[in-house]
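Protocol step 4 of 5: obtain the predicted structure for the target chain.
Materials: sequence only (see below). No template structures provided, no constraints applied. The aim of this step is simply to have a reference model before the mutagenesis design in step 5. Sequence pasted as it appears in the construct record:
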Amino acid sequence: MSKQELTEEETCWNSWIKDRDPDAGDVLVRRYTPLVTYHVQRISSGLPRNVSRDDIMSLGLQGLFDALTKFDPSRDLKFDTYASFRIRGTIIDGLRKEDWLPRSSREKSKKMDEEIIRLEQKLLRSATPEEIANHMGMTVDEVYQTVHEHYFSNVLSIDEKINEDDDEGKASFVLKDERSKSPEQTAMMSELISDLAATIKELNKNEQIVLDLFYTEEMTLTEIGEILSLSTSRISQIHSKALFKLRKLLSPEIIDGGIL
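Step 4 output (structure tokens):
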């Protein structure tokens, strides 16, 4: 950002904070809308196709306005960081209220888990997506999508809990107290992390890159696609395949244990 742009933004902030000038507010909303778009893209990657991206964008903009209204410049906190919490919290809170994963999808996921167990007991080995699809009369893409949605719902429900009793009535984030874990839990967690790391090494090169860029570098699927010169849909497929391979290590019990 140039010095002129920085000065203009500071002027807008002063006008907004002191007088709640609507023109200044509009400028700030436009300035930070790309931040909303970024979080919408990341969250949308794990949602069913029937969830409207426009609805999620609307929730994100509500979160941005909430952040603009409540941000205190005197605190030692960057607005981007503060706004990100508000934007993500508002989106996830809205998704929960709308029950973004329908009961039918949850039942489908539960049934698939049960059928996978039966199939693997019969085969005496891990079943492939193709075998599961054939066994259940589904397409391979449906298998990947079901695993993807189920995993993402578990992560959202645990990693970003909404405290409805927050004094502002808005989204807040709950961090687990790691010190409360028992020695047994700590040992188990270490073993699970080791198993997860070993399994990730068994993924192919593109799958490892996609997971690393998405979860470590926090890039969107579209951005990853540009880096790998692949379409967003292809990156989404690679992402889903990688999650399927990690399925057993990404169970709710492990997530509940604080691994992810």
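Step 4 remarks: DSSP finds twelve helices and no strands in the chain. Residues 3-97 form a domain with the Rna Polymerase Sigma Factor; Chain: A fold (CATH 1.10.1740.10).
Proceed to step 5.
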